[in-house]
Fold:
Amino acid sequence: MSDTTKWALFPVSVDGVDFVSKIDMDGSFYPQLVNMPSEVFQGFHADMIHTLIGNPSLMTREELEDELAVINAGASQAILALA
Structure:
């Protein structure tokens, strides 16, 4: 995975669990996401998280980190992490 230290950070809360969406500012997703209304951005992430891992509030931090590792495997422009 790329060095994400200079990527844009977008906080997201889903079912009481705080995440951060890290987006490469030079990537193709960034212009779309930065112009997206906050409610749409939050809804998009909530739908994605529910589809991929279910209700995050029912999982331990370790379980969430394991799931996120699978989701982020091979990512090049965006990753999802716990805040």
